Amino acid sequence: MIGELWWNRLVNSVRFLDDIQIAVMNEKSVVLFFDDEIPWQDIMIETIEQRLADQNDDRKLRVLNVSSVSDSNEIGSYLLEEFCRKEEKNVYWPTTHGNEMRFLAQSRDTNLNKQDVCLTGIRPEHAAKWIASISEYMENCDPTKEHGVFLLMIEGAPAVGTKQLTAFRYTDYVTDYDCMMLCLTMVSDLSCGRAEKMYLCEVASNIAHNHIERAALLAAENLDLLRDPVGVTERVYQENDIKVTNLQNVVRAAVWEAQIKLVFPKLENFRVEIIRKYASKLQQYLPIRSSNNDTVDQAADLEIGQLFYICKENSGSRITDYAEFEMLKKMRNARNILAHWDILSYEQLKDIDMI
Question: What superkingdom heads the lineage (predicted)?
Fold first, then answer.
């Protein structure tokens, strides 16, 4: 399963969980900040739960989706309802105990003291209140006695820390590089060359804008994605109810960017090799004028288009052999297509030995 691969094998996502585990095992409550939706959230939580259980089977991880807490002022009463028996709740009195969070922290009877609690579904507009409430709970706990430990999972809210909560920001661990590494791991057994695998992963990552789950869905389509990037992306996104405005333009721009990275370095290597082999012959037809009306008088400065022009206009002199001239023509065409913001087909890339 791809989510298990992500949370158990990819270095930086695993390191993220390592640090969370260490903090929780040290009885520190943590707040986890995600700029966007959490990739494979259920698998992440299950992985954390298993890690904690392996270290201490006396405590259990309880997961609460708190999206139903519509008013941030209800946090204390919500937690009181979740963790206190009726007779415990009857003991609570605001003028005596201050508020629900202080009461929970000072209570020795509540089952919260033997639990790690993962809070999901926190609305961005309520994030600050949740952080303040859990911070107050931790501040009023007796550090010498057993108490509850919280994991707050927050999406789309600014990352802020407090003295009582250890903050972990997902993007401090995971970058675009990790998205690429996941895709490369997924296609490692594919029967094609290294360049084609790299190009496939670049295309998948670019189309998904490095959104981990979307990139994985696209990479799983293997070479079909390269053969028909627009059609395959439209199908995959429709099947997974992913909506993107102007998807065709997004896909073409993403593929173009991947092709620039793939084609231009190899095109430059081809240009340099042709000039190295035939510099003395090419020099005979210099100087020439560039499209900008600049003078080119050294073979080393010739661009692909200028090389093609000289070889074509002087075909009788056979500056290159036939196969090299044909490849020069294809390379010039590829360069012109990309220079005009268009993309090469899968067959064209194969034809010029790019993949």
Answer: Bacteria
Select from 142, 174, 206 the last residue of a domain: 174
Nearest to 98 by CA among 147, 148, 139, 150: 139
Contact 25, 61 (CB under 8 A): no
Is residue 64 classed as helix, strand or coil in its secondary structure?
A: strand
- HSE, CB side, 13 Å, CA atoms: give it for residue 96: 8
Note whether residue 273 is domain-resident: yes
Q: How far is CA 292 from CA 50, 114, 234, 288, 329, in A?
A: 65, 76, 41, 11, 21
Residues of the domain holding 338: 263-355
Q: End of a domain among 122, 139, 174?
A: 174
| Rounded (10°) CA dihedral 246, 251, 254, 258 | -170
Q: Distance between CA atoms of 192 and 268, rounded to whole angstroms?
A: 24
Residue found by looking up tokens 């998807």 in the block:
247
Which pLDDT tens digit goes with each residue over 274-317? 999 999 999 999 999 888 888 999 999 999 999 999 999 998 88
Establish whether the linkage from the previous residue to 287 is cis, with ω within 30° of 0: yes
pLDDT digits (tens, 9 = 90+) for 225-284: 999 999 999 999 999 999 999 999 999 999 999 999 999 999 999 999 999 999 999 999
- The string of DSSP letters for 116-177 reads EEEEEEE-GGGHHHHHHHHHHHHHTS-TTS---EEEEEEESS-----SSSEEEEGGGT--HH
